[in-house]
Amino acid sequence: MNAHLFSLLTIGVLVAAGVYLLLERQLTRMLLGLLMIGNAVNLLIVHVSGPPGNPPVQESSSGKDTVADPLAQAMVLTAIVITMGVAAFVLALAYRSYRLTTADVVGDDPEATRVSQLSDEEAIAAERDVDDAVDPHELDAVVDSGEPS
């Protein structure tokens, strides 16, 4: 297979930049990282789908010997739609977060910070206390009254 170095480097740079942006704390940068990774995957699918050829719908078009792969085109079209759905969802999360906190930065969870600072023995003891405090019958959705139906 004849690999084009420039397109593979472009895909690699898009993935690397997307991962870097995805690891940021700001939701808008996370969204841009998701979009960049999605575009890189679309380019990769198109790149590995094979050489260009005749359209798959028409029998005779130009003088090319091969027919273009319709599966790769359908996968890219589906991936574009899914990426737009994910982008809309992350934009809604960013908008809601901004309305609640007036900041775009995702902060640390105080409970996760507290648990991460516990020693191993304290974490095991705290987990045991939580397990002992919960009665399994309290977790049932239907309360058994004890009367036959």
Automatic annotation (TrEMBL):
Q: Name one Pfam family in it.
A: Oxidored_q2
Q: Where in the cell is it found?
A: Cell membrane
- Gene Ontology cellular component terms for the protein in this record: plasma membrane
Q: Where the protein is mainly located, per its record? A: membrane
Q: Which UniProt keywords apply?
A: Cell membrane, Membrane, Transmembrane, Transmembrane helix
Q: Where is this region: Disordered?
A: 126-149
Q: Which family does it belong to?
A: Belongs to the CPA3 antiporters (TC 2.A.63) subunit C family.
What is the designated name of this protein? Cation:proton antiporter
